[in-house]
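Blinded run. Sample ID left blank on purpose so nobody reads anything into the name before looking at the predicted structure. Input follows.
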Amino acid sequence: MSYFARSDELPAWVADLPDSWGSNWLKWSVRLSTTRPTEEEQAQLPYISNEDIASWTGKLLNDGPKPAESDGRKFQIDDVLLNKLRPYLAKVYHADFDGVGSGELLCLRPSDAVLPRFLFYVLASNGFIDSIDAETFGSKMPRADWEIVGHQPLPLPSLETQRRIAQFLDEKTARIDGLIEKKRALLERLAEKRQALITRAVTKGLNLDAPMNPSGIDWLGDIPAHWACKRLRFTMKTNPSKREITLSDDQLVSFVPMEAVGEYGGLKLDTEKELGEVNNGYTYFADNDVVVAKITPCFENGKSALAKGLKNGVAFGTTELHVLRGNKDLLSEYLFYVATSHPFAKIGESEMYGSGGQKRVPESFLKDFRIGLPSVDEQCEIIEYVGSVNRRSDLQAKKTFESIERLEEYRAALITAAVTGQIGGLQ
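Blinded prediction complete.
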């Protein structure tokens, strides 16, 4: 009898399975496939990485994956790929084609005891993700290896029950995802409107009748005649030194992982850690600094924020953030608006280096980016105007975000309930 056959020792999320269901360690019903592609297969099979998989939904973000020279493992139709890096992101993919997956994806091949689609839903459930996330190793880049994943519980109803549950969840989640997509489309329209307003304000000012002069920069065009035109390196500094911190190692500071930096200005401050835990190996910033994502697709989606309300005025975050700090001639909030403008995003995207889903924005782009610079008084006027307009759209966006969160929570709860036999008529 296996460990998980003893119901009194099951983890909480699978502790109340129906009496007719079995359960076992995942490794007894799923095989880890580690086959490497041949040179010919590497050149022909489509390649996907963990960056190509959407969190929780299991959808591919890359509609047409192409072969790549990157190292990986072969997968085949009906394998289930599980991201072992930062498992809390819940990146799980049920393969519908043969291909090659990156080394961060565990390729799990179901036995005859479990249907691939049912396995996908178990692995994408809150309970399973929380279980493996609790056992990860590594602080900056937490991972879950096969030893951790293979020793997680797998509920095992009959194949017919698995089929009913998978079909039920396919139908229900498709409807929920459709509603979420519509709400996300609304958020995109609001973000586009916001970005257009900001771009107009930081490149042309608020006075439509102001005399204009050529800036000498193609993308910037004419700017108000009384504005200066400067590279950012002369009005700000990047990635400030930690030597200015005066806190002791046992004092709390805010901790900001990449997902805490929302699109177009959001910054979640849910996590605090002692300074001694994060002082090495993480990116430092302080209140009123501007943080900007380095990598694609985060950068092109406007993941930047103006830091406010940090614990003890200090934060440490992912190394995939640039930190910008204005000076007496460039207000932090105005700098934030520059960093969320359309030209900043488009030109920064063109300056990225690297390949695939891991292109990065170089620090040199930030320093050499040219802006039209009004006086501090005019910056204040622009900040006040843009802020007042944005507050109205931000309220609508907040309500839409909350609606999406409720739908996502319902979706997650529905999956967990279904794969643990808590929904009547499916057992």
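Unblinding after everyone has recorded impressions. DSSP finds ten helices and 21 strands in the chain.
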